[in-house]
Automatic annotation (TrEMBL):
Catalyzed chemical reaction(s): phosphoenolpyruvate + UDP-N-acetyl-alpha-D-glucosamine = UDP-N-acetyl-3-O-(1-carboxyvinyl)-alpha-D-glucosamine + phosphate
Keyword Transferase: yes
Record-given protein name: UDP-N-acetylglucosamine 1-carboxyvinyltransferase
Organism this protein belongs to: Candidatus Argoarchaeum ethanivorans
Broad class of the protein's primary localization: cytoplasm
Molecular-function annotations in GO: UDP-N-acetylglucosamine 1-carboxyvinyltransferase activity
Keywords associated with the record: Cell cycle, Cell division, Cell shape, Cell wall biogenesis/degradation, Cytoplasm, Peptidoglycan synthesis, Transferase
InterPro entries listed in its UniProt record: Enolpyruvate_Tfrase_dom, Enolpyruvate_Tfrase_sf, MurA_subfamily, RNA3'P_cycl/enolpyr_Trfase_a/b, UDP_GlcNAc_COvinyl_MurA
Cell compartments where the protein resides: Cytoplasm
GO cellular component: cytoplasm
Pfam families: EPSP_synthase (PF00275)
Organism lineage string: Archaea, Methanobacteriati, Methanobacteriota, Stenosarchaea group, Methanomicrobia
Length: 430
């Protein structure tokens, strides 16, 4: 059976929604847990498909895991090797399913000195090379060998040695991988022009709780003083998912709803919250909640995505969708990924109007009358944008390939139903 969500649009969302743990914080932290041989406990882990995919990978590496009610314990006293006693990550089922599998390279290279791998999977939102990861590992003294078209080997027979690394772009993934690789390296590592997303701070807090010595200096510089061993016995809480929170703000605003978003850290959303407010969305924040009021008229707002603390690229498709209902045109610039407008084809089928200036810039025209139709998801956040359009579209939308949504949003259908959305979910049995 086709996986699809059927939405009957036009109902304002009302009520309270609780935000789950962050996907993009949970996955790096789960990878980093392999650095310790003892048990670590992680709380607020979302029950989403990307977490399940990574759990399979961790099991493939030899880890034991136990999960219950969003709490996950991981221990990996001994790594599992494959043919000829090698750690071959890309042989493990699920390696190609998620982007985060690449972060296992940092952990395994650091702890076991040699790892075989391939390009990871993940959403198709542009060119997603791993050159910054590889160059960074090389700066730490690792050797890189291309074995064949599908396999790269990184090794550090004498162990990694700290160095100064400058990232030409503050890549989230590269910063995480190099942090994970450098905590057990000899001497100090300085990562300059590092990404400083809240998810990275959450990873640093986890590593420091295990005994790492990491601090953030000014100017996006992260300093890691290598230690000999990381301890277990740590319980670490994952931060709330700021992208899920931004998704519900958009859904509430576009349906002219009245919702309270709980268990969120508004300080992680400062830039987008201001953009929503500029658009006329009534938002009141406390330390851990956001209340959204109905609005009469949405104003057009131009946005440009940037690394944190700028406007998050993951919310670009959602904000652009909101702007289809604004009173005028908005310029949406995508400066992080080079192909993040694919969802527009589907929005167009529903009646959204826009001009594509380049693969980085579009102009979204307001006052678009959206009508339900058959549409297809192509990635997680673009998929959430399509779902959001369907919530406001007149009539019925059938949204296919909805499995993308379950990769990143915990219990999304239940949360939407509780807010009054009318939907039916069809899942495949596989
Ligand atoms: C992560 C998030 C993703 C989010 C993004 C930016 C994961 C799995 N995904 O992706 O949801 O949208 O951060 O907040 O964590 N780049 C290079 N070379 C590299 C690495 C990256 O050129 O070695 C470029 C990419 O092509 C892209 C930009 O840097 O244009 C940003 O990528 P990066 O920050 O690494 O994003 P991800 O870690 O892939």
């Amino acid at each position: 059976m086709d996986e699809k969500i059927v939405i009957y649009g036009g109902t304002p969302l009302n009520g309270t929604v609780r935000i789950s743990g962050s996907k993009n914080a949970s996955l790096p932290i789960m990878c980093a847990s392999l650095l310790s041989s003892c048990t670590v406990t992680l709380t607020n882990i979302p029950e989403i498909d990307d977490v399940y995919s990574l759990l399979k990978l961790l099991h493939g590496c030899g880890a034991n895991t136990n999960s219950y009610n969003n709490t996950l314990s991981i221990s990996c006293p001994k790594i599992k090797k494959y043919s000829h006693d090698k750690i071959i990550l890309n042989r493990i089922e699920g390696y190609k399913k998620i982007r985060h599998s690449i972060l296992l390279v940092g952990a395994l290279l650091s702890k076991y000195k040699e790892v075989y791998f391939d390009m990871p999977g993940g959403c198709k939102i542009g060119d997603r090379p791993i050159d910054l990861h590889i160059t960074g590992f090389k700066s730490l003294g690792a050797q890189c060998k291309i074995i064949n078209d599908n396999t790269i080997m990184m090794s550090s027979p004498k162990g990694l040695i700290g160095d100064e690394i400058f990232l030409r772009f503050p890549s989230v993934g590269a910063t995480e991988n190099l942090l994970i690789a450098s905590v057990l390296a000899e001497g100090s590592t300085i990562i300059k022009n590092a990404a400083i997303e809240p998810e990275i701070i959450n990873l640093i807090d986890f590593l420091n709780a295990m005994g790492a010595k990491i601090k953030i200096a000014g100017g996006n510089k992260i300093i890691v003083k290598g230690v000999d061993i990381l301890n277990g016995g740590v319980t670490h809480n994952v931060i709330p998912d700021r992208i899920e929170a931004g998704t519900f703000i958009t859904m509430g605003a576009i349906t002219r709803g009245d919702i309270t978003i709980e268990h969120v850290e508004p300080k992680h959303l400062e830039f987008p919250i201001n953009a929503f407010k500029d658009a006329g969305v009534g938002l009141d924040t406390t330390k851990n909640s956001i209340h959204l009021d109905s609005i009469d008229e949405l104003r057009p707002v131009d946005i440009c995505t940037h690394p944190y603390p700028g406007f998050p690229t993951d919310l670009q498709p959602l904000f652009a969708t909101l702007m289809t209902q604004a009173d005028g045109s908005s310029l949406i610039e995508e400066r992080v990924f080079d192909s993040r407008f694919r969802y527009l084809n589907e929005l167009k089928k529903m009646g959204a109007q826009f001009d594509i200036i380049s693969n980085r810039e579009i102009i979204v025209k307001g006052h678009s009358k959206l009508t339900g139709t058959d549409v297809f998801m192509g990635d997680i956040r673009g998929g959430a944008a399509i779902l959001t359009s369907a919530l406001v579209a007149e009539g019925k939308s059938e949204i296919y390939d909805s499995f993308y949504l379950y990769r990143g949003y915990e219990k999304i259908e239940t949360k939407l139903r509780n807010l009054g959305a009318r939907l039916k979910v069809y899942k495949s049995n596989g």
